[in-house]
Amino acid sequence: MLEIRNVVKTYAKNVRAVDDVSLNLQAGVVGLIGHNGAGKTSLMQMIATLTRPTSGQILFDGVDIVARPEAIRARLGFLPQDFGVYPNLTALEFLQYFAALKGVRDPARLRRLLEMVNLHEHADRQAAGFSGGMRRRLGIAQALLNDPDVLIVDEPTAGLDPEERLRFRHLLSEIGFRKLVIVSTHIVSDIENMAGHLAIMNKGKLVGYDTPDSFVREARSQMWSATVDPQHYDRLRAQVRVLQAQRNAHGIHLRIAHPSSPCDGALPAEPTLEEALMTQRYAVQEGAQQGAQVQAA
Fold first, then answer.
1. If pLDDT is split at 50, 70 and 90, which confidence band does 293 have?
2. How far are the Cα atoms of 26, 72, 127, 197 from residue 50, in angstroms, in the given order?
3. Are residues 251 and 200 in the same domain?
4. Are residues 70 and 100 in the same domain?
5. Which of 145, 113, 117, 153 is CA-nearest to residue 133?
6. For residues 257 and 4, what is the distance between their CA atoms, to the nearest angstrom?
7. Are 232 and 121 in the same domain?
8. Per-residue confidence band for 280, with pLDDT thresholds at 50, 70 and 90
9. Edge-to-edge strands of the sheet including 55-60?
10. 275 & 200 share domain
11. Would you say 259 and 282 are in contact if contact means Cβ atoms under 8 Å apart?
């Protein structure tokens, strides 16, 4: 459905926000994971044809959308991180406005979308009184107006309360049954139960692409659990990657990422997805450092 081939995006002073990224994406939910500044938003803006890559190709159903952006725009929905609403418009009026812009002429569809995002009871309420979660849900209804085949959502749960986050994740998961949904986030819990694949970015590069289960499986040999005396904690922390530390009645309980047993009494532990991705990120960083040292030598 969507193929990204060796895409590069360079900004001023030769800063590579996206560095030779290649991906082949099909229907389902894909989580685009990375710290702030990893290149996630730049990549999504190029897929949405808001900016052009410096080099490389992006193909949608075999058509180069860099050369022919209209090939995807009619079949694309996009919800940016900073999505504003017109406060004096009601939810229904807001959708009517965007429907006119997108050439959608089915009034019944607007009502169905408001029901899908659980805003049908607020259809005639002005958006000025909406919570952050309600505005995000109105934004997703806007993105779905043209029944897109590709939906791109940037940091969908930023600023939402736990109940709104859960509702929003469930909605995106259901949409992913039929369409390609690309969800950018640095919050792993947002996508661990809905994404079929994860694309991991670091400093503009794609450093991993696999299923959540595969990332967890690869990390199993490197996760350890141990309880240590407080006086030994600082020394151990200087030697290994401590992912979590929690004081209890027996000392300090640690979750550690390390290739072998990090200390006496350490036991193998089942990694969470977040721990697996942190372990993978550390491996990438250490590999880059070793490569730099080899070049310097």
1. low
2. 21, 12, 26, 24
3. no
4. yes
5. 117
6. 32
7. no
8. confident
9. 15-25, 2-11, 55-60, 63-64
10. no
11. no
**Residue 36 pLDDT level (bands cut at 50, 70, 90):** confident
Q: Is 28 exposed, middle or buried (0-12, 13-18, 19+ CB in 10 A)?
A: middle
Give the residue with greater pLDDT, 20 vs 132.
20
Helix/strand/coil (H/E/C) assignment for every residue in the chain: CEEEEEEEEEEHHHEEEEEEEEEEECCEEEEEECCCCCCHHHHHHHHCCCCCCCEEEEEECCEECCCCCHHHHCCEEEECCCCCCCCCCEHHHHHHHHHHHHCCCCHHHHHHHHHHCCCHHHCCCEHHHCCHHHHHHHHHHHHCCCCCCEEEEECCCCCCCHHHHHHHHHHHHHHCCCCEEEEEECCHHHCCCCCCEEEEEECCEEEEEECHHHHHHHHHHHEEEEEECHHHHHHHHCCCEEEEEEEECCEEEEEEECCCCCCCCCEECCCCHHHHHHHHHHHHHHHHHHHHHHHHC
* pLDDT average, residue stretch 166-179: 88
Range of the domain at 40: 2-208
Count how many domains the chain has: 2
Structure confidence at residue 286 (pLDDT)? 65
pLDDT at 162: 83
> How confident is the model over 185-197, as a mean pLDDT?
87
Q: Are residues 263 and 162 in the same domain?
A: no
Q: What is the pLDDT of residue 291?
A: 56
User: Do 126 and 232 share a domain, yes or no?
Assistant: no
Which one, of 154, 149, 155, 145, lies nearest residue 44 by Cα? Answer: 154
Could you tell me the two tokens for 75? 């079949």
User: Region 41-49: what's the mean pLDDT?
Assistant: 95
